[in-house]
Input
Amino acid sequence: MTALPTVAIVGRPNVGKSTLVNRILGRQEAIVEERPGVTRDRKELSAEWQGREFTLIDTGGWMADQDGDALDAKVSRQSERAMQEADVVLFVVDAKVGATADDQLVADLVRRIDTPTFLVANKVDSEQQAHVIWDLLTLGFGDPFPVSALHGVGTADMLDAIVTVLPPEEIEEDEDDADRIFGVSIVGRPNVGKSTLFNRLIGDERAVVHDRPGTTRDAIDTIVETENGPIRFIDTAGMRRKAKVDEETEYYSLVRALRAVDKSDVAFLVIDATVGVTAQDQRLAERVDAAGCPIVVLLNKWELLSAEERKDTMRAVERKLHFLGESPIIRISALTGKSVNKLWPALHDALASYSTRIPTRKVNVVIRNAQAAQPAPAGGRVLYATQGATDPPTFTLFANKELPRTYLRYLERSLREAFDMGNTPIKIRVRRR
Ligand code: GDP
Ligand code: GDP
Output
């Protein structure tokens, strides 16, 4: 069982927290007390929106002291911890009253905590009252979500936003996942040495577990025991059946390679070192990269090169495949087996970075620090961020306005460095808030 994501509701007494909790739950589960500050028994409730389950933590009972006045220094450690451990904080204020000194105290507390926060302007019961929310911008949490917890207005939009920042759903821990086998495809132009490498990889000391029929009649995936656990090698056609090398197979090998890459977690891109990087190799590399598959470049037939040629070749390869960023380039001889063992640690790193999943909290700390070090131009700002998906890591940034591409690349770099994501492609999506 994995823990559900949590949403903590904070705010001074009487702003309508428990009313909001009830609204979210859609039934009278929490107890609404007219008298503020009455300690409530239940603080954690299971909620659901659009199929996403989460735990709501109402910090109401903790925040108020017995008389229902001032939060002062008594803001309990409990509510602080609840906020710290939450994935999202809903900071509720009373739009009818505006931002009070107590609201400022709560704001200070929330700001100290690196949890994505939504400002919720409650008691906006009618359109006419919508203007009062602008006063709340002074709290420094961006545009508030105007809602009426009592009448159920605006809460759907708020919930939509909440579920987008919840951490990605844990993949069901079913059988399939428990022994999920990573897929690797060996791609490259004809004659670069793919089948020789394949045979080497499944060779002597590494036992082939079994062949598994692929989706098409002639494609066969082979599972191999490696020091990284079992790896499924995805046939990129021609591994077994030697195709005639001509114009047509060049084309079809590209098509097949891309199809295999779609099913893969990592691609081994084999290049013939005696030929160097051709335009076709570049095209293939681009396509594989664009498919979101981390690439390990293998310079094969390395043993055929003289010392002189090796230096030049390496330099040329780095230049021509520069766009692949940090993809490792490994020099091997599939024929003699030289350096083929270097593939495993490279594969391990590629798989690890590919399936990295970073807690929302940490993503936001990195984004915040990056923005502090170098703010976006023209008042642009990422309000919060979340990793929406893995394989490859995909981040969603919620921003107050369009951000220039150069700035997005800067943020991407910050994330990549902070989380050691190596050569995996990273996707960044921006949503306006
Ligand atoms: P809490 O102390 O923050 O949990 O606040 P409650 O949920 O107990 O609400 C305090 C008071 O505000 C109650 O009398 C609620 O009925 C009222 N209230 C809550 N939400 C709204 C709303 O959207 N509009 C109006 N007009 N009153 C509300
Ligand atoms: P594929 O079409 O990419 O599967 O390439 P093959 O594995 O069939 O290899 C094409 C030719 O290159 C064969 O004659 C192999 O023996 C040869 N070859 C493959 N790897 C190496 C290597 O590391 N060194 C040398 N010298 N020849 C190799």
Q: What stands out?
A: Residues 136 and 425 are 39 Å apart (CA to CA). DSSP finds 13 helices and 16 strands in the chain. The two ends are 34 Å apart (CA to CA).
